[in-house]
Amino acid sequence: MKFKAILLATAVSFSTLAFAQETKKMGPPEGSALVGDFYGAAVNSKTESKAISPEKLNKKLKKANEKIQNVALKGKVTDVCDKKGCWLTLETEDNTQLFVKMKDYGFFVPTALKGKTVVLEGSAEKKVTSVDEQKHYAQDAKKPQSEIDAITKPKEEIRFVANGIKVVN
Fold first, then answer.
1. Hey, how many other C-beta atoms are within 10 angstroms of the C-beta on 6?
2. Domain of 73: which CATH number?
């Protein structure tokens, strides 16, 4: 009886090993972020031609005082989440950052997007970001601990949720 139990345990162990799959470490998608590449929903040339700057978006949000749907935005990427490519920041004229998340966490972007100019299509709103959330994103961006510790107040900022992103330059 013991022999049958050992034989069964051995067979189960070998079959488990035979069917085991290698787990890939989650990280941002690989890619060179070449002109014309897109992530998420496709961004067409009509959308591209009506894209506005982060500064114009800020002015529109002040007038609208609410969420703006179906807006196209154009800007230079300054940072990308190193862990999964699940967020990015765009450069603004006043050297602040405009934060962009991907709709429903449905797609990711490669870190090679840093320094590229992109057109994004999605929605925007002013939002107050908690201290904990700011610290989380600072950790994702591998900011120094001193910079993370300096975050002590919630901050109002524009949040953009992208349906699609296209590399244009």
1. 10
2. 2.40.50
